[in-house]
Amino acid sequence: MRIDRWPRLTAAFVPLMLAGCVMGPDYERPEVAQPGEFRSQITPADANSLADRAWWEVFDDPALQKLISQTLQNNNDLSVAVARIEQARALVGVAKSEGLPQVNVDGFAGGQKSFLPTPDEIGTAEFASVGGVIEAAWEFDIWGRIARQTEAARANLYAQEEVRRGIMLALVSDAASGYFRLLQLDRELAIAEESQGVFNKTHELFTLRFEAGRDSRLPVERAKAALDSTGARIADLKRQIAEQENALSVLAGGYPHAIERGQPLTAQRMPETPVGLTTDLIKRRPDIRRAEQDMIRANAQIGAAIADFYPRIGLSTLAGVIGVNGQGGLDGTFGLWQAGLGLAGPLFTGGRLESIYNERKAYWDESVAQYRQTILVAFRETSDALTAQQTLVERRASLESQVAAMRQAVELADTRYRAGRASYFEVIEAQQQLFPAEAELARVQEAQLVAVVSLYKALGGGWNLDDAQWNRPG
């Protein structure tokens, strides 16, 4: 008969458990006003977006694709993010486990020997015991405390997954930006080496004219100074190239080494960059999606705090067997069991529960403000990238025209000097103006490529890729 009572007791309280309610407000996304278009947007808004394309479709340089793929496979920051996801997933299991029966076992075995005085002599008594007890408890989540805690833990898991996707997108953009910076330094080095050759020829020409008595020593020294300045610039550029290669090596999870190049800076293709609808930015950007999961977690924690004001109700049981063997007729085995309904709740906490509730509400307000700020930052970053694209086109066109004119000026000054119709000042001045302008043009070409990278990141590029697809180029 005793064995049948436990199922009957459980069945009596299952309806009570199922009838429980979940305390606290259900999550609703706050309203956020959004403009119809991004500032500096040139083309009309449409559904197409650069963010819909995979990164290897945007950056089609094979060497860059290889670098990005290695970075996504080996970067240690990404490994840290993956480990934190697993931690968050384990915490979801911890939260869910509180709503399931908890069973513990306690076994024991031992002996005892006692000395007992008698009228004639001191006697002894020996006892030995062995047994075990199984305890079980099951909290009924009537007020939804466990459900809200599980909801908060699950939101934290989703937030960590968005952190990982944000890191992957940042790694793609950092690798691409660093690669384009490397190509720009290569281009500047080539310009400096070209200028070194030109200044060397000019120095030789002035030296020959000086030795022939056709000119003074002044142009020789001026040409030598320009030559030495270019040599110093070349040494500095080689240092910067090595440092940039080292930075990209570490980004890709390797020790410092040379970085493979593909297409030169001037051959890099500029892809089409439609931005899409502004309303789609919320669903594409991983940092915005993470901020929303933080709001979901904060909302769930409010419900858990409210549920703590109510008593916890559950079942508890105990069953065991104990065997005792001893002298003097004490020999036998007996069992025990116990089951009951438990209730535990706060009566007076000195304001602790109220303070926890107020803290959770304040955290909700913080998460909402952070969500709105994240959206504003996303629009700012997108607008910055669009503005850069628009203005750099005009700047590049002006610099290309300037460089072409300066090259022509160098040729004319050299021809006039050889014909004796111009001084060495014209030659040196024309050369010294040309090469910095070419270097500035190279920096603008790099800035245009980086603007594409920034726009891809700002729009949440690759948002529709599965996690397994991010490393596609092998």
Automatic annotation (TrEMBL):
Keywords: Coiled coil, Lipoprotein, Membrane, Palmitate, Transmembrane, Transmembrane beta strand
Similarity field: Belongs to the outer membrane factor (OMF) (TC 1.B.17) family.
Pfam families: OEP
Topology of this chain in the membrane: Lipid-anchor
Record protein name field: Efflux transporter outer membrane subunit
Coiled-coil zones: 220-247
PROSITE patterns to which the protein is assigned, alphabetical: PROKAR_LIPOPROTEIN
Location in or out of the cell: Cell membrane
Principal location listed in the UniProt entry: membrane
Listed InterPro entries: MdtP/NodT-like, OMP_efflux
